[in-house]
Design a protein that fits this description.
Strand 1 and strand 2 form a beta hairpin. The chain contains five helices and three strands; from the N terminus they run E-E-H-H-H-E-H-H. About 10% of the residues have low confidence. The chain has a three-stranded antiparallel beta sheet. By secondary structure, it is mainly alpha-helical. 41% of the residues lie in helices and 9% in strands.
């Protein structure tokens, strides 16, 4: 059963290294905005999948992150969110990995959930009906030569 979050409220996610981000729910609007982002639309053919994933994640983050805590400049002074700062934040592997698992993958699980089929009963023939007629009488054995 698909479980809908009808509140559509932003939530805080703890990432790594003392960073927390406040994100809007991963909605169709955010995914469409990310897909139509010029950075995504101008990815050159033949670009490796891992490079595409980074560009796409940064685009999603730019549209989803509305606030953060624990992010500062080189002097430790807190800075506001901006596309450039979000890109720099996601260049840090522990942050990128946690964003992918806590936010992006969570949204993709919903995608998989809506496309999934119910599980089948155990066994390959459970629920199957016979198609062959039962044999009549006993079978004769072959003659030995």
């Amino acid at each position: 059963m698909l479980r809908l979050n009808l509140t559509r409220e932003a939530e805080w996610l703890g990432l790594a290294l003392g960073v927390r981000i406040k994100v809007d729910p991963l909605t169709t609007a955010i995914m469409v905005a990310a897909r139509t982002d010029p950075r995504v639309r101008t990815i050159a053919p033949g670009t490796p999948d891992d490079s595409i994933a980074v560009v796409f994640a940064k685009s999603i983050a730019t549209h989803a992150i509305i606030e953060w805590e624990g992010v500062g400049d080189e002097n430790g002074v807190p800075i506001a969110t901006s596309p450039e700062a979000i890109d720099a934040l996601l260049d840090l592997w522990p942050i990128f990995e946690r964003f992918q698992t806590a936010y992006v993958a969570k949204g993709l699980e919903l995608e998989a959930e809506k496309n999934g089929s119910p599980s089948l009963p155990i066994g390959s023939s459970v629920g199957a009906s016979a198609t062959a007629q039962p044999a009549k009488g006993t079978a004769k054995t072959a003659h030995k030569s």
